[in-house]
Specification:
With about 450 residues, the chain is an all-alpha fold. About 80% of the residues lie in helices and about 0% in strands.
Amino acid sequence: MSGDSAAHAYRNVIVTAATAGLAGLLFGYDTGVIAGALLQITPDFGLGSFASGLVVGAVPIGAVLGAWIASSNSDKYGRRRLILAAGIIFVIGAIVSALSPDTFILVVSRVVIGVAIGVASAVAPVYISEIAPPDIRGRLVTFFQLAVTVGILVAYLVGLAFANTEEGWRWMLGLGAIPALALVIGIVRLPASPRWLLMVGREDDARAALQRVRTEGPEAIELEIQEIQTSMNVSEGSWKDLLAPAVKAALVVGIGLAILQQITGINTVIYYAPTIIQSTGIDSDFSSILASLGVGIINVVMTVVALRLLDSRGRREMLFIGVSGISLSLFLLGLAFLVGADKTYATVMAIGSLMLFVSSFAISLGPIFWLLNAEIYPLSVRSKAASAGTMTNWFFNFLVSLTFLPLIDLLSQTGAFWFYGAIGLVTLWFCWKFVPETKGRSLEQINDIFTNRAKAR
């Protein structure tokens, strides 16, 4: 392949991954915007702590349903079409939520938004992993997580802009339709997944798709097609096939990280960042959202760092470093509340701990769960297994978001954050015990890791 053709293919794969990664922007925007919007929705609708948790938790519940829908339709209709459908559904949900006259309509519309996010979060990382060359797959799949963090930052900026506007929460929620429209417009120009095309017997189309996103010549592309075909035992696996020993070994990693990513408390910080910061002694909505903006900036910056390191330093090393920082920051955050919210240095400690927490998460559990969940399963069951991991992740997202405020009532802020910190220590053990290193390996070579693990038992 000529130099110009190789450069063109490289640009194509970057653009493809970045465009599909916009699905993460929907995820991030809604996650971040509800943090600021909730400060206004709560008094407008007279919500208690449970009802507030339900407004927040409606999206994760919808996302569980969306991930399930993706599990049975990703192989049938293709990854690209489902991402397109998710963008359209999100546009509808965002507009309805902005116009909600009462809590019921608001919760229902946010369930609809959740369905869109669930589909997108289950399918987009898989689509990117199937398009990406092995040597930069970690970087490209991390585009999804980077878009999540950018979405959160944009949401905080929007929240800041409308913090002192009457019913500003309606603008905050409604503006989410804009990135969804961008995804819809962008995704129609992308190629279908070559691995999906081979699954449905469209070998010539798969070859053409690979030629758009590979810098190697025709011989290397033919070898990749043969490798993919060899890995396909059946055209489409069933749910029963998830019980195969090699798949179960991979699911231990995928589902385990899905749970641990959530129960270390990330969405207590993202969803409730302004609320947490107000608890430290900052008493205005504007100031608390402004402080949250710093959290959002750190999140984006450190995800860019992860983007550069995941394919050079590896998944396991970044997990060990990041999860250690997560536990330390949660113990420090709990200590800040123990010292007392009326002391300036306690407020500084709390905000600094939030920054450390988000930084640590952004280089480890944040991108690496989505990356591994997209790359560790065999092609025949990849959509179902990845959806199982995504459903689990969103279900525990719902549990944590719904129980966070009641947990504080039960254990106090200090007890709640120390509880999450202890879970971080469990996560360190889990990563050491179960998570393999996958950097630089093809998807088919990763499958061999778990096949060998199953044979060794």
